[in-house]
Amino acid sequence: MNSKVQNKIAIGVLYGIAGLVVLILLALVGYILVSGLPKVSWHFLTTPAKAFLKGGGIGIQLFNSFYLLILAMLISFPIALGAAIYLYEYAKDNWVTNLVRTAIEILSSLPSVVVGLFGFLFFVVKLRLGFSILSGAFALTFFNLPLLTRSIEDSLHTIDDKQREGGLALGLSRWETVTRVILPAAVPSILTGVILSAGRVFGEAAALIYTAGQSAPALNFMDWNPFNISSPLNPMRPAETLAVHIWKINSEGIMPDAKAISSGSSAVLVIAILLFNLAARYLGKRLYKRLTSA
Amino acid sequence: MSKEILTTQDLHLYYGSKEALKGINLNFDEKGITALIGPSGCGKSTYLRTLNRMNDLIPGVTITGTVQFKGEDLYAPNADTVQIRKEIGMVFQQPNPFPFSIYDNVIYGLRIAGERDKEKLDAVVEKSLRQAAVWDEVKDHLHESALALSGGQQQRVCIARVLAVSPEIILLDEPTSALDPVSSSQIEATLLNLRHDYTIITVTHNLQQASRIADRTAFFMNGELVEVDQTKNIFMNPAKKQTEDYISGRFG
């Protein structure tokens, strides 16, 4: 067989594989949207869930998901940023660094349900935080930290060493070079990583079932004092998220329209995650363009 | 003779156990251009990078001997590398502007040092860019990204960036080898402009360039300094056979 034919066959096979991946994604997303979208309405998105009756919504779960996401990001981002800067810009290549890296890798490969159970034992029981947004946010931090650290490290890696030399040769200290030259240059790619990891966190269920809990008490959206138990901002209240809600309806939902609610919730979840991904690409590209105007 | 600003004595540098510089004794007078020439791997770039301690960044490098800047030992335990690099600036082979605007690139060093006075910063930007002979080309888009410029313009912006922190010595590591001939000659003109105000040390592969711009030329080979003299002596009447062979293109 001559090499031209070989080449054609190889390209054909690769196209086929790529096409298959796209097809699977389209089929999956298409099915979820087609079966779920008819259920989605303003009413569905804003009303609280009902335990036994028809016509419940996902308002509180949706809010919980976003609130938990923001809290988890607020906790994990600074830690991940610090860890990534240390590992990439400062750490010498020795056994301590390797140990830290290995630890991060192992942490990232832990099954999320194990992280959830650990969170339950440690935050919920031992630290007496109870089933709460805070417990959930800590569990998500465990889950998110390794991924985020790795992604920020990768972002730093994309900045050419010549930029570091340039900064140092200009009489900037190492810290000034990192914070004033490298980080600003890495912002687009760091932002992309943060949003993508937000998508993963947003869809996470297993780590939250035993930490943020499976109940969504009624909230008073007029009360923004975080110390009141019915306030949406109270971090100590149990908070079922959208992903946990889907899991729960399917395992023990007894409302008559459970199937429709599950489909509708899935559609909302998928759309939210797709939006995260699109936003990551758009913002990353836009910022990069603004920085480089190239 | 004007006075010596930078001196190196018995300078050895090892990458691991490999000796890359074998006892260099070389001094630089204030002002003027010195070119370091020699075949690839002869140690000229390595030598240049010991002069503002950029080799510190490479793991496994050991340096012995002394480098003195105005009588101060650059490798003393309490030497401040940040301060050293402010006084001894460096321009690299590949233009490496930061991914910010031209204006921000030039004032970066000053701004981080805490300078906030807009008028003063504006003045420094104009002065530095003029000195680097790139002002006329960029003055109308100072706030656009430096990455949108051509390679030669980027390199001159990098020179301006170094000038803005007002160093005494400027080290250049093959500043034109990544540029086209027109840009190269613009950089050369820039350097000739600066030679009255700064001590310039440039590494170059290009012998014609050394003969065109340098007041003094030093020839390196195999980690040793073979010969240093007035440029015209090196090119017209070298003292050593190796220098003559290299200059006349018999190797390298």
TrEMBL record, chain A:
<feature type="transmembrane region" description="Helical">
    <location>
        <begin position="66"/>
        <end position="87"/>
    </location>
</feature>
<comment type="similarity">
    <text>Belongs to the binding-protein-dependent transport system permease family. CysTW subfamily.</text>
</comment>
<dbReference type="InterPro" id="IPR000515">
    <property type="entry name" value="MetI-like"/>
</dbReference>
<dbReference type="GO" id="GO:0005886">
    <property type="term" value="C:plasma membrane"/>
</dbReference>
<keyword id="KW-0813">Transport</keyword>
<dbReference type="GO" id="GO:0005315">
    <property type="term" value="F:phosphate transmembrane transporter activity"/>
</dbReference>
<feature type="transmembrane region" description="Helical">
    <location>
        <begin position="99"/>
        <end position="123"/>
    </location>
</feature>
<dbReference type="GO" id="GO:0035435">
    <property type="term" value="P:phosphate ion transmembrane transport"/>
</dbReference>
<keyword id="KW-0472">Membrane</keyword>
<feature type="transmembrane region" description="Helical">
    <location>
        <begin position="260"/>
        <end position="280"/>
    </location>
</feature>
<dbReference type="InterPro" id="IPR005672">
    <property type="entry name" value="Phosphate_PstA"/>
</dbReference>
<protein>
    <recommendedName>
        <fullName>Phosphate transport system permease protein PstA</fullName>
    </recommendedName>
</protein>
<feature type="transmembrane region" description="Helical">
    <location>
        <begin position="181"/>
        <end position="202"/>
    </location>
</feature>
<dbReference type="Pfam" id="PF00528">
    <property type="entry name" value="BPD_transp_1"/>
</dbReference>
<keyword id="KW-1003">Cell membrane</keyword>
<keyword id="KW-1133">Transmembrane helix</keyword>
<feature type="domain" description="ABC transmembrane type-1">
    <location>
        <begin position="62"/>
        <end position="280"/>
    </location>
</feature>
<dbReference type="InterPro" id="IPR035906">
    <property type="entry name" value="MetI-like_sf"/>
</dbReference>
<keyword id="KW-0812">Transmembrane</keyword>
<feature type="transmembrane region" description="Helical">
    <location>
        <begin position="129"/>
        <end position="148"/>
    </location>
</feature>
<feature type="transmembrane region" description="Helical">
    <location>
        <begin position="12"/>
        <end position="34"/>
    </location>
</feature>
UniProtKB/TrEMBL annotation, chain B:
<dbReference type="InterPro" id="IPR005670">
    <property type="entry name" value="PstB-like"/>
</dbReference>
<protein>
    <submittedName>
        <fullName>Phosphate import ATP-binding protein PstB 2</fullName>
    </submittedName>
</protein>
<keyword id="KW-0592">Phosphate transport</keyword>
<feature type="domain" description="ABC transporter">
    <location>
        <begin position="6"/>
        <end position="247"/>
    </location>
</feature>
<dbReference type="GO" id="GO:0005315">
    <property type="term" value="F:phosphate transmembrane transporter activity"/>
</dbReference>
<dbReference type="Pfam" id="PF00005">
    <property type="entry name" value="ABC_tran"/>
</dbReference>
<dbReference type="GO" id="GO:0005524">
    <property type="term" value="F:ATP binding"/>
</dbReference>
<keyword id="KW-0547">Nucleotide-binding</keyword>
<dbReference type="InterPro" id="IPR017871">
    <property type="entry name" value="ABC_transporter-like_CS"/>
</dbReference>
<dbReference type="GO" id="GO:0016887">
    <property type="term" value="F:ATP hydrolysis activity"/>
</dbReference>
<keyword id="KW-0067">ATP-binding</keyword>
<dbReference type="GO" id="GO:0016020">
    <property type="term" value="C:membrane"/>
</dbReference>
<dbReference type="InterPro" id="IPR027417">
    <property type="entry name" value="P-loop_NTPase"/>
</dbReference>
<keyword id="KW-0813">Transport</keyword>
<dbReference type="InterPro" id="IPR003593">
    <property type="entry name" value="AAA+_ATPase"/>
</dbReference>
<dbReference type="InterPro" id="IPR003439">
    <property type="entry name" value="ABC_transporter-like_ATP-bd"/>
</dbReference>
<dbReference type="GO" id="GO:0035435">
    <property type="term" value="P:phosphate ion transmembrane transport"/>
</dbReference>
